[in-house]
Model the fold of this input.
Amino acid sequence: MNTHDNTSETPEPRTRSLTFWMRAAETALSSEMHRTLSAEGLDRRDWAVLNVLAGERDIPGLAERVQRGGKRVRSLAARGWAVERDGAWIITEEGRRERDRIHALVSGVRDRVRGTVTDADYATTLASLEAIARELGWDESSPRRFGPRGRHGFGHGHGHRHGHGCGPRFGDHPRHGEHPRRGERAFERGFTAGFAAGRDAA
Done:
């Protein structure tokens, strides 16, 4: 008589913290945005400058810096997307066409995010995050900063499996004998290290 139970038990799924998933989602979204803009020869700061020139975004302080004609504005001008006229920098017709085309690509990334969950779940997620932020002291007067000096400081390897920005074995299951939360702590350490690297490289 076979008294052994040959059925395999399904391991319980790992429970990760709210902080882990917030950072994981933000890192993945930032990586996808980076890939989308990089394919067009831009980064997120170039994209912000182009949107300010197009009058599509009002970022405190940036409009004044744009009118000084820094290297990012002149880089856009070299592509025929911006021009200085009567002492002011403005977007060209070609620049507006390109801005609208790239905006459609960026919107496609956002649509992918929205499409992963139902509208109700998405609304609940936003409402929950807002409630948590307000409970911890955030309000509309709080500075909008996502990294040191408002930069996305993830360092080299941002978004890649073995990069410094996400820590070792990001998303992997723990090794045999390893504490189940060790990988999550490694993620936290890797995120902090990548954050500092991004700050120093800026």
